[in-house]
C-alpha cells in the first residue's frame, strides 16, 4: 500500500476544506516553479496494449531522479507519494516538498497526520 505526503493549511488532512489551498493558488505556484509542469491528463499503455488515462484538475508533474512524481490537487490539499523509489534520507526530495509547502503557507503532513 502506498504512503502519501500532503501539503495542507489545515491542522489535519481531514480538515483541508476548512482552510484550503485554492486551485488558483496551486496553479499559480506551478506556473512559477520551473521544475513543475501542470499536466491535467496522463496516459500510459498497459502490457495488453490498452491505454489507461487519468484526468485531474490541478495535477502537476515533477521529474525527480528520472521518475514522474505526481502532485494531485483535491479538496484544498496537494498529495504526492512518499518515499519515492527507495530514496535515501539525504536526497533533495523532502527539502523540495517542504519548500513548496512553505511557499504556500502550508504544512507537510503524512498519512498518519505526522508533520515533516
Can you tell me about this structure?
By secondary structure, the chain is of the alpha+beta class. It has one domain (4-110). It has two helices and eight strands; from the N terminus they run βαββββββαβ. It has a six-stranded antiparallel sheet with strand order 2-5-6-7-1-8, with helices on one face. The model has no long low-confidence stretch (mean pLDDT 88).
The amount of beta strand, in percent, is 25-35%
Helical percent range? 10-25%
Tell me the quaternary state: single chain
Radius of gyration: 14 Å
- For the biggest β-sheet, the strand order reads 2-5-6-7-1-8
The biggest beta sheet reads: 6 strands, antiparallel
Poorly predicted runs of 5 or more residues: none
Shape: globular
Give the ordered list of helices and strands. EHEEEEEEHE
Overall tally of structural domains: 1
Count up the helices: 2
Mean pLDDT: 88
Number of strands: 8
Q: Please give the alpha-carbon distance between the first and last residues.
A: 20 Å
Class per helix and strand makeup: alpha+beta
Amino acid at each position: 500500500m502506498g504512503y502519501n505526503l500532503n501539503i495542507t493549511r489545515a491542522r489535519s488532512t481531514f480538515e483541508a476544506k476548512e482552510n484550503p489551498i485554492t486551485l488558483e493558488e496551486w496553479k499559480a505556484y506551478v506556473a512559477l516553479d520551473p521544475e513543475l509542469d501542470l499536466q491535467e491528463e496522463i496516459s500510459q499503455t498497459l502490457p495488453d496494449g490498452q491505454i489507461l488515462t487519468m484526468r485531474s484538475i490541478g495535477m502537476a508533474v515533477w521529474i525527480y531522479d528520472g521518475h514522474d512524481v505526481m502532485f494531485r490537487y483535491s479538496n484544498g490539499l496537494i498529495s504526492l507519494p512518499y518515499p519515492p523509489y527507495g530514496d535515501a534520507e539525504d536526497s533533495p526530495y523532502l527539502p523540495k516538498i517542504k519548500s513548496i509547502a512553505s511557499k504556500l503557507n502550508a504544512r507537510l503532513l503524512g498519512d498518519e497526520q505526522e508533520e515533516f
